[in-house]
Design goal:
178 residues, mainly alpha, elongated, 2% strand, two-stranded antiparallel sheet, Rossmann fold
């Protein structure tokens, strides 16, 4: 039955008024008694390092980003090897750089080597970077390549056969500044 029909009849008007009054006066049923609850546990404090490690180790977005970045690096490196005038740093590259052999310059940790295991360890131990623990981690030789890095490395050979040279700002002492 529609409201319009109810309004057209006098008995319908009474029914509509009664419904309106009853719905406004209805009281909700009392809630069932709850058992005493234990105090809520406090949430752990936010931890940016934990979030970063989890994102780096588990997210498909991180993997896709690094694979894409290294695919582009491979394309640019192939361009540079074919064209002696190509440079990644046109403002900084001056002089007769065309006669120099091409070079790939990058940091190793978190650029081509995944050291998120050390970051995860620091999170679990609630500690910060320490050269002693960093050196111990490095000596475990457990880090893997960043996704996509291995596909670029084979073409990073010097034209004269010198091979690949990895430089570390700390001179290889493992001070963590690399």
């Amino acid at each position: 039955m529609s409201v319009a029909f109810l309004m057209r009849t006098s008995s319908g008007l009474v029914v509509a008024a009664a419904l309106a009054l009853c719905s406004g006066c209805a009281t909700p049923a009392p809630a069932p008694a709850r058992a005493a609850q234990a105090p809520a546990a406090q949430a752990p404090p936010p931890n940016d390092l934990l979030n970063a490690v989890l994102w780096m180790q588990r997210s498909v977005e991180y993997r896709a980003t690094t694979i894409g970045a290294f695919a582009l690096a491979r394309i640019r490196l192939e361009q540079a090897l074919v064209d002696p005038n190509w440079t990644a740093a046109p403002r900084e590259q001056t002089g007769a750089y065309q006669r120099l052999p091409p070079a790939v310059i990058l940091d190793i940790d978190e650029s081509i080597v995944d050291n998120s295991g050390y970051q995860a360890w620091m999170t679990l131990k609630d500690t910060q970077f320490d050269p002693k623990t960093w050196n111990a981690y490095v000596n475990t030789v457990t880090s893997l390549a960043i996704p996509g890095a291995v596909r670029v490395r084979p073409i990073c050979r010097c034209p004269r056969g010198e091979g690949l040279l990895h430089l570390e700002p700390d001179g290889g002492r493992g001070t963590g500044d690399s």
